[in-house]
Amino acid sequence: MEIKVVHQIMEWNEDVSDEVKKKLTEKRVCLVNVMGSPGAGKTSLITSVIKQLSETLSIGVIEGDIAGAIDAEKMKALGVPVVQLNTDGACHIEAMSIQHILPDFDLDKLDVIFVENIGNLVCPAEFNIGEDIRIALLSIPEGDDKVEKYPLMFRTTDALVLNKYDMISYFDFDELRVTQNAQAINPDISIFNVSNKSGDGLNSFNAWLRSRIEEKINA
To answer: What total number of domains does the chain contain?
Structure first.
């Protein structure tokens, strides 16, 4: 008799992920999964995106944290609907959590929901949550070896944001190493150099993101 443990869990998550995607497709809502290490700048990036894209898109946010609601308060201050998801120790968000949260939003009034996943480069990459777009952040202070150490995160993402790019002159960060490694395992990946502090690179990233969102909601 075959015993399945991890495989079964993953299959179950994939089933729910498909249900979430089907529901959001029916409502013409795009789900964006934002992943990265603690301190990589996920909250700041989402905040910057909201400030630019909210002029033409209706945006909601799901804030994932092990505990607390600090980042959710920042999103609430921007005037967008936000739900705080506390995992109480779990290192990632699963599709069922997204499924349970969706009724808290008026999906008929939204174009896109951003999910700020739990901060790490391992577990979030393994679990689909019904997303249409995956964004991975790698901040300059984290170092240039992360694609080699955590390949799944970068193999499965649509965009890699090299965040805090204004700090690159202060760190021994080999940008070419990162981009070559990322493109070797994911030839279709889009790579953006972004500084939320100076605003450099945000227009280019937001233009790409807007195009992908509109592609989904206008399909």
So the answer is: 1
